[in-house]
Fold:
Amino acid sequence: MEGSGEQALLEVRGVSKSFGGLKALKGVSFKVRKGDVSAVIGPNGAGKTTLLNIISGIYTPDEGEVIFLDERITHLSPSKIARRGISRTFQHVEIFGDMTVLENVMVGRHMKTKSGFFASGLRLPGVFREEREIRRKSEEILEYVNLAHRKDDLAVNLPIGGQRTLEIARSLATEPRLLLLDEPAAGLNIRETRDLGTLIRKMKEDLGITMILVEHDMDLVMHSSDWITVLNFGKVITEGMPLEVQKNPEVIAVYLGSDERSEHE
Amino acid sequence: MTKWNAAALILLVLFVSLLPLLTGNTYLMTVGIFSGINALVAIGLCILMGYAGQISLGQAGFYGIGAYVSSILSLKLGIPMVISMTAAMITAALAAVVLAAPALKLKGHYLAVATLGFGDIIHIILNEWGPGGPSGFGDIPRFTLFGHVLTSTAGYFYLIWGFVVLVMLFSQNFINSRSGRALRAIHGSEMASNAMGLDVVALKIKVFVLSAVYASLAGCLYAHYVTFISPSSFSLFYSILVLMMVVVGGITNLWGAVVGSIVITTLPELLRRFEEFDVLAYGLILTLSLLFFRKGLVPFFIGKLGRFRGTGVAGG
Structure:
């Protein structure tokens, strides 16, 4: 383990998690290199979302640990983990529906700003400046993800694609070092999925954000990720670059069933 | 603050300053005074419920703490009112922290019951240990401003509505700020709020304290205006009355709390002519208003206005 922090931004070591009798994760280990888009794929029930929930602190693992920036974050609360620089989106969209699109992103600026209850209520001069800065920065982010034209709409009125983009925008506002994307293409049409792929690559290149992408859309995964980890029944069955993983017979078997496997062999 | 809110606030200030000049009617102003006192409690509950999504059936407890602490300190110990009122608000704030830390882990009905229990405990304490027990005590000093005692009804009307305007201004600023947004975010999704790094527990405690401070301020004003208090004014019935004000006015808008307080405080006065049927009429009107203005009076009329103008009017 010595020197492992050199390249790895995040390391998951031997993580297991059970829910009652169901073993969702059985000793999962993997590393995420700084600057990479690292995809985690696998069939339904493979444990992908459980893994993201452990990294983001929603679950505590039964065994194993999560190391982020050379620090154990295994027992920290979700909000503390967010403040360390890990942000996420949700498989079942969790937007602030009764707030406008812009306000959603402004909430993302919360942890980067500091006006308190009293200062805000009394409208002290610093508050005004900070508020303007929050607004400017949030508008800039909406511009970046192409949602600026809907900024004054209630978030709940956005189509699903817009809501997923909004979740990403809101995460960007926290200036994350690591962004967890939980099935960001679920419910999107082909064009929206392609735009999402473009956005992911743009965030990687312009902003240098490291990402973990949990996704079923193989096209998106193959075109956007640098590294793929394949989970099945709570275990890592293989990992590698997209082209390697694509050719791996075990992966083909998991995805297509063993009949197709024999055809490929 | 949006320009709508600024306009509404200016309108309120104008109305409040002109009312005593236009009518010398003491009775009308007295109803106005009680509306104002109730509005302070209701604004706090509205922030707690409508914005932060928490419920409290124990606001009467904080209201009572405000009234009793300030009265006892100023009457029995002769402490100046500025200090006794501050002490009362600090006591209520501390009580809110003690209550909130465990209770806010609860949600919905469970939180409602926990806060209801708190209100009841305070009521029992006032009954058992408060001066005069269940019959209460009087001779509470009246307000003194710059060395002279405030006695006129118009004076109290200005004083109390002055506080309402200040509290409203503070609350509007706060709701439309970083912290207010955070509260609304918690209401929207606790999971996403956590993922945004919001300290959900701390924020909930803070908003609970804020609502307690508002209620205790109202309690102080009530005690020093009426000069006589007894535990019956601070029972569960009062908590529910305030809840009704907030719901009838509309929990999603702070102005709903003000409008609701005026309506609920004035309604029984208007129904006096029905004599023994007044309670019946009161119940009927409330039920109908909730049926027809499901989101409350203020959001309903804002919605109508928005449709009329063909634009959405942002509440807040």
